[in-house]
Predict the structure.
Amino acid sequence: MSEELHDHDRGLSFDLPTLQRRKMIRLLAGVGLVPLVGCSSDDSDNSASSSSSSAGSSSSAASSGSAECETIPSETAGPYPGDGSNGVNVLKESGVVRKDITSSFGSASGKAEGVPLTVTLTVVDAASGCGTPKEGAAVYLWHCDRDGNYSLYSEGVTEENYLRGVQETDAKGQVTFTSIFPACYTGRWPHIHFEVYGSLEDATNATSITATSQLAFAKDVCDTVYASDGYDRSVQNMSQLSLETDNIFSDGYDQQLATTKGSVEKGYTATLTVPV
């Protein structure tokens, strides 16, 4: 992995305004000036469990129609979004609307190898208390490969566009992507980027982003995956990080920690509720 990967997500200096804004909202909420609400009233357990997380609590609230719901935290898209905001725009290419993102499309033919991962995001209306699915919205999802490289940008994979895709939400507000478990690269906790758009047309025209955020993985799941073949670099990188010190998730990750289940042999599923 080349030294340029150390700049993934542009670091703390780039993200500081976002982090300070979110911390100020929480501070004001603590003194009663701003109503801080969540998708669940009992999200007291922030443990990084492979079978439960705050994402699971969010899902429960979505199904029960909680009266309170906090929108997904806004995060940087990083320097490798591929949405036209930093060079290349994959969203306008034919073939980007797809479920399986493990392989490149169009004139590219590369395929990302790694432990299988199925990601399901449920987009819900925050104003309704997380009780109303956002049917007809769209999600653009992307992440690094097993070596910590981002297609379209990283050396050696600039001609590839794998691990990027768009889907329209169904009647349940859901999109499901077939992918591989991402690496842990220098300076960042394992994560997946995503953008939510009002419609598929908006997404494929790269306009009117509703929300930009990131999904995090529980430590025990990452440790298990990284002990398998092909993830050697991730082991050392992971040993130097924690969710509490990551420059994106350090100010709170309860809404972004996916509920992850499965095994290295059979693959994993990761689910997250995304209030917008």
User: Anything to note?
Assistant: The helical segments are 11-30, 54-64, 200-204, 219-226, 232-239. The beta strands are 116-125, 132-133, 138-142, 164-168, 174-180, 191-197, 209-216, 259-263, 267-275. The chain is about 20% helix and 20% strand.
